[in-house]
Each structure stands twice: as C-alpha cells, then as structure tokens.
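Issue 218. Parser rejects a valid record. Input:
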Amino acid sequence: MTTQTVSKQNQTITKETLLTPRFYTTDFEEMGRLDISDNQREFEALLEEFRADYNRQHFIRDKEFEQSWHHLDSNTKALFVEFLERSCTAEFSGFLLYKEISRRLKKINPVLSECFSLMSRDEARHAGFLNKAMGDFNLSLDLGFLTKNRKYTFFSPKFIFYATYLSEKIGYWRYITIYRHLEKYPSYRIYPIFKFFESWCQDENRHGDFFAALLQSQPQFLNTYSAKLWCRFFLISVFATMYLNDCQRSEFYKLIGLDARQYDIHVIRKTNESASRIFPLSLNLDHPNFFRIMDICATQNRLLINLDKANLPTYIKAVKKLPLYVKLTINFIKLYFIPPVNSQHARQLTK
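Output the parser choked on:
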C-alpha cells in the first residue's frame, strides 16, 4: 500500500464524532499528588502480575494467518476492517495515555509509574497485533500520524479512572463473550484473531483491577455525594456509547453469529455487576424503561447517521440534526433519572 493511501485512511479515522474512540490527556501533576499508601501492598501485588507478563508468548501470529483472504466478499471485508480500525485506534489511545502517565510519574511514584508503563506495553502489543491483521487486507494505520494529528480530550484524573475502569471491564466482557461464543460455534470464526480473545480479555481484566485499586485508594472518588453522581454518569455514558455503536454495526455481529442487541445487553449486565463491586451504586437494568430508552436512542442515532450520508447542503443537515440531538439529550437524562441500585445492598443480596 502506498504512503498516500495510508494517509487518506488515517484522515478518515481521525474524523471526530461523539461515538468514535478518543485520545485523552489529564492533569499529571494532580495525579502525582494522589496518596496510595493505604493500598500500597495491593499495588505492589498488581505490579508483580504485570511484570509476570503472562501473555508474552500469546500474541504471536501462527500459520493460520498465512493465507489469502480473497475468499471473503467485499461487504464482509469492509465490516471486518472497520472493526479492526476502531479496535486498533482504541488500543493505541490507551497506550499513549498510559505511557505519558508513566513518564510523568516516574520520579514521583515509581510503583504507579511502572504499573502504567507495563499496561502501555500490553496496549501497544494489542494495537500492533490489530495493525498486522489489517495488513492481511492490504491496509495499515500510521500510528505516528494518529499520535500527531488526533485531537486530545482533557479529563481530570478521577474521570480518567471512572472511564478507564469501565472501559477495561467492558472490554473484558466483550472479548470473553465473543471468544466463548466462537468456541461453541467455530464456523463463525471468519478470521484467526478471534482465537486470541481469551488472552486479550485477561489483559483487560488486570487493567480493570488496577483502576479499581486506584479508585478504592481514593475514598473521595467513591464515597461522596458528587462521586455517586459521577459514577452514575459514567456508567450510562459508557453503556450507551457501546450500545449505539454496536447497534449501527449489527451486520458485523451477524457475521460472527451474534445478535448485536442481545450481545450488548449481556455485556452491559456483566459489566454493571462488576462495577457494583467497586462503585457505590449500579444501574437498574431491570427497570422497564432502561433498554426501551436505549433502543429509542439507537434509532435516533441511526437517523443522524443517515443524515450524514444524505446528499443535502450542510446547513439543511444541521437543521434536521438539531431536534434529534435534543431528543437524544432528553432520553439520556431520562436514563440518568432511573433510580439506581445501592451496590452495598446488591452485594448483600448476592451473598
């Protein structure tokens, strides 16, 4: 592939929407001031797990990759390549964030710094593996181009912790669910990368455990009234983002034998259950309006996508989009005001 083609490909990926994978930065000085002494032993234990690098030999391409993929039709290729692009971008975003945090904390908190460094190693490994997979379809992401040209979203440290904890845990449930499904129905495994999802999800799980320890080391991020409001906000934001993204890509999930909606409901339920062990509250997913409103949001999001594709003047598109954005906002507010579940009470019920 020529350099020019790769550049065009990256320009497409760097187009921002509310649902695209984002690159983040934070207040590194504030992060350096965090006191983790009460949980020091837990962080040292996590660090030993990261150093063990259980997946050192697990992300190695085997002979099954050494074949032509011309037998896949153009629609299948397009859907699969989009999945690889988005996944690679998300993993590379994590690599950049963790690497920079590690660099900034090196002299302030060596334990945290090394933990972030080793997590960035994992994310780089994932991104590289995905990029090599794209090479099988004569495409490649210029990761240096992404680093320099992608817009960075600023999040305070506590928001980074909430969002990244949930992203890592939801990543675990997404990967392990697909892996177990394809283990049961191997005829849907259209490409060998899915065989690696079991190892992949264990990395995600360890990263999630690290951010859980960070949150638990800072009671102000979990126990205050404002913390409860923010936990609720991030639960809804992360779940809704995944749901809307996957509903618009239902054809991809059909390729691997999954119903996108049922897959997402399962992943959301499992992640909500995981989060209830850390967060002071979880979402009431059994409320009759929760997934009904999510489905309405997915429909409104599809209408926005169709408007983007329509051959209309920009100002006409903007006028038509405005009421849809208003409706989406109102529906997200409705989701937010569904009474949550007290996590401590939920944990007692499951004992």
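Fixed in the parser; the record now loads. The chain is about 70% helix and 5% strand.
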